[in-house]
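Let's practice the habit of predicting before peeking. Look at the sequence and jot down your guess about where helices and strands might fall. Then scroll down.
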Amino acid sequence: IPAFEKNYMTSFKIISLIALVVYAAVVLSLHFSREVGTFGFALLGFGVLIGFFNLMHYYAIRKNINVYFFLLILAIVIGILGRNPYVMHLEDTNQEMVYSKRPAVPKYFKDWVTSRMDKIRNTDDSGYVVYFVLSDGGSSRAAYWLSTLLGKLEDTSAQVFKHTDSLSNHIFCLAGASGGNVGNAVFYSLLTEKSKGVIHDNLYVYADSFLRSDFLTYSFGRYLGPDLMRHIIPWIPMKDRAAALEHAMEHAE
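Done guessing? Here is the structure:
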């Protein structure tokens, strides 16, 4: 390194070290990741990865070795050996064969109607309305729109009918995909809390507050960090981006 460039190189190394520390903090800390934000970490994360691959390329040229070829072979060997880099999280339950005990649709519908028979009999000629909620995917946007919409309809219908009836009394099922299912889960959880008396009204406000949290940055940090290395080093003792997303949703602010 020429003498006149040493100061520049020292500054570059210090800045790189700070960037690497921030990068690691986002990967490890949910709270810190929310302080940095998704856009800021995207710039930082890709910058760190570019620096890392540039170093690999530099040493590959210096040593005249195709490092990428050996990494590819290693990834293939790891895959052949059956080392799964991603472990599915399963919830422990004390009940055996939980899903096999679910009632069939005809029985569930019969029980659903039976529990509402008094209201159905007192309904006028227009009939008793039954809703099937089918929600599309679309990441957090779909979850936000669905849960806030259903929350608003639930609040409004409860007010109109003086809390004697509401939208949830007429919903037969909630179904969807991807972000839509997240919205279904949020709305269903709010209904559960409402039935327990933990909350009363303003489901829209609770849904809005929950889904304004940053769920992306923490899981994105795992994606641009440990998850990229799992295909070569599957023994990394750190949960993947799916578990990070779950953790971020469980600790929404």
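How did you do? The mean pLDDT is 88.
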